[in-house]
Amino acid sequence: MGSVDLVEELCRLVRIRSEVAVSEAGDVVRRNYEEAAKAVARLAEEAGLDVEVLELEFKGGVIPTVMAEAGGGGERLALVSHYDVVPARGPWLVGGREVDPYEPVVLGGKVYGRGAADDKSAIVASIAALAELLEEGVKLRYRPCVVVTGDEEVGGYGVRALLEAGYRWDRVVILDAGADYLSVGASGVIHGWISVKGRSGHAGYPHRAVNPVEAAIRLANYLLDAYKPARARRVSRLSSPPGSPIPRVWGRFSITIMKLAPGEPEKHNRIPAGAMLGFDVRLIRRRI
């Protein structure tokens, strides 16, 4: 598309381990953000866009954010994507062979690698699209701006930092993981932990201990049996994405993590003193 080699540029971005995670202490741990932002800025500049790189401070660190405009008039339109990825453990099995998640493989017309879909393909595609419009001299109805930031995988802190710094647009399109359809953003999200406390002891003498793992399992079953259906009965007036089980966006609840409390050793013959459940709740707006 235009002067941008989509596959080559996507592979370059995938090779950058721009990982983000949250530590058990709640700190955001970022890796190679600066390198990723520089690569995006280079690509946008070579594509003929006007580029600005912001250094946004948030959650104890810096989130480099690339803003690349193509000119035009009218309302400002932000095309938002992110360069951060969830840490990957390799090797992966692709096409019958083991590969490094950060050494992209092109197979059957697809690029395989950490972040190839979520969300570095959106970065390359949006920049390439604007480059093509510039080359063709198309008169733009909107004033588009590619916005590429980080921390999307841990709570959208990059976008939040932009808003807190006063940045606004008239229209916003979030480009994330796929481009099969355009939908109205209809879900908020709450992530949280449930801590279940017990009394540690030897598994050979369970009557002398209070088992928080078994209590957490009972609690999880209750939430799945009672709370999850209740959340699902909350339905929006907005349409669900293609492939959804019901036609309208619905409230979703998932238990996503079960683990021992921090500092608890993993031993088969030891009943721990604490266990934890991690959950994800999707909020809806414009309820019926």
CATH class value of the largest domain:
Alpha Beta
Kindly report the spatial arrangement of strands forming the biggest sheet.
3-4-10-5-11
Reading the helices and strands in chain order gives HEEHEEEEEEEHEHEEEHEEEEE
Note the overall shape. globular
- Helical/strand content category: alpha+beta
CATH architecture grouping of the largest domain:
3-Layer(aba) Sandwich
Main beta sheet: 5 strands, mixed
Number of helices: 5
Question: Are there runs of 5+ residues with pLDDT below 50, and where?
Answer: none
First-last Cα distance: 42 Å
Mean pLDDT: 93
Radius of gyration: 23 Å
Q: Please count the beta strands (DSSP E, at least 2 residues each).
A: 18
Strand fraction band?
Answer: 25-35%
CATH topology of the largest domain: Aminopeptidase
Helix content: 25-40%
Account of the 3D structure:
The chain has 288 residues and is α+β, with helices and mostly antiparallel strands. It has 2 domains: 6-174, Zn peptidases (Aminopeptidase), CATH 3.40.630; 188-284, 2-Layer Sandwich (Alpha-Beta Plaits). The protein is 25% helix and 34% strand. It contains 5 helices and 18 strands. A 5-stranded mixed beta sheet has the order 3-4-10-5-11, with helices on both faces. A 3-stranded antiparallel beta sheet has the order 12-18-16, with helices on one face. A two-stranded antiparallel ribbon has the order 1-2. The model has no long low-confidence stretch (mean pLDDT 93).
